[in-house]
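Action item from last week, closing it out:
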Amino acid sequence: MTEPAPLTEQDIARLVDRFYDRVRVHPTLGPVFAAVVHDWDEHKTTLVAFWSSIVLKTARYRGNPMAMHRLLPIDASHFAEWLALWQDTAHAVLAPAQAQQFVEHAQRIARSLMHGLGVQPRTRPLDLPRLR
């Protein structure tokens, strides 16, 4: 069995492009993004740099994902839908091992954002239990 070709920036761009095309028409996620993304090409370019920094270790991304998500009207259900769509798209676009790598990173990022934003059920931003 042959190993898949090494992951490239073009692979990441293809994944990001397909994913955000799907996000734009998603009934729950689409309106959240539409309210804040005014230039989809610029947004996709930023996200390619983000994923390139994570997966290829290029250090191209210079931003603050926590700050970018802080003011959005999102909750844990949005993260669940985002992850499901991301997983489905990654497996449709990439080789299985590469897709799984992106899915695992996305799961960790989602957990971190949910903790930091305080949107994970029954926890506060520092993962402290809520007092009743």
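Closing note: The chain is about 65% helix and 0% strand.
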